[in-house]
Amino acid sequence: MPIPVPGSVAEKLRRQTVQIRAGRGRNRSGGSGLAIVDERVITNAHVVCGEPLVVEAWDGREAEAACIRLDRRRDLGLLSVRGLGADAACLGDSDRLRPGTPVFAVGNPLGFVGAVSSGVVHAIGPLKGFASSSLSWIQADLRLAPGNSGGPMADFHGNVLGINSMVVRGGLALAIPSRAVQAFVTRAKTGRRLGVTVQPVELATGKLGILILEIVPDSGAAAASLLPGDILAGADGRAFRSLDDLEMAIDTAPGAVLRVEFYRGGQQKLRQVAVRLTPAPLPHAA
Q1: Domain count of the chain?
Q2: Fewest beta carbons within 10 Å, which of 120, 127, 198, 231?
Q3: Percent of the chain at pLDDT above 70?
């Protein structure tokens, strides 16, 4: 049975949620998005799949949008929308979310504008057996349908704790945690990069490791003498639990210096190196 959502809280989030239409004619598709500060809209990367991009506010006002940044691995897109005038939302802290917390979603499923659904959180963290198992997800029993993608998931105080992405087997909704969303937005402003391409691996201890596949020339990682084959285990004294943790560490490193812990050459000894993060964007690299 749906959980009643406080009406004033739901209405506020409806005013912050927008519709997004991409493409023309038969190739036209749509989804939802969340208005944030600086005339920006956060949505899913899979919603941003054609041009032109048109964003419509809750009151029917429309404006064309420009895509600032896409992260298809994380399924996030950031749009710039001038003159739309939609109410701006603030992102909450998904790290405070716990299983059993009541949440609700706002979106535009199947043409229903500003539809609200409610449920409870089942789990937070990586989803084993899933294609993106190294990423952290909020899993909740919300009823989502095509058109909900890119819309917000919030607690009953109206704190936006995730961006809805997809539904998996069993009907569970997956949302990208707000901390990962905030890191994505921050990265679009600062352009900080470690200068590596990576893939997750499982360490002998059963914990997550992040294997360096390539080093970008003239990057911070290259200057710090990190090598392909090195396995990143943590940063600034905190072990990595997901790829999101690496990106968050990059974006919050004091003074743009990241102290990385890593293993080299199959050795059991944990090494440490300080990496000065590069300020300029390096495409396709963390």
Answers
A1: 3
A2: 120
A3: 93
Domain boundary among 119, 154, 184: 184
Helical axes 243-252 vs 178-190, angle rounded to 10° = 50
- Domain span including residue 201: 191-276
Which ranges of the chain would DSSP assign to H, the alpha helix? 7-16, 178-190, 220-223, 243-252
Q: Is residue 87 part of a domain?
A: no
- Find the largest Cα–Cα distance for the chain: 60
Reported pTM: 0.74
232-283 tens-digit pLDDT = 999 998 899 888 888 888 888 888 899 999 999 888 889 999 999 876 544 4
Neighbours of 70 (CB within 10 A): 17
Tell me, yes or no, whether 126 lies in a domain. yes
Pair of tokens at residue 26: 């038969």
The set of long-range contacts for 112-119, using a CB threshold of 8 Å and a minimum separation of 24, is: 112/147, 113/19, 113/58, 114/14, 114/17, 114/58, 115/148, 116/5, 116/10, 116/14, 117/2, 117/142, 117/143, 117/144, 118/2, 118/3, 118/4, 118/5, 118/142, 119/2, 119/3, 119/143, 119/173
**Residue 61 identity:** R
Rounded to 5 degrees, φ, ψ at 80 are -105, 125
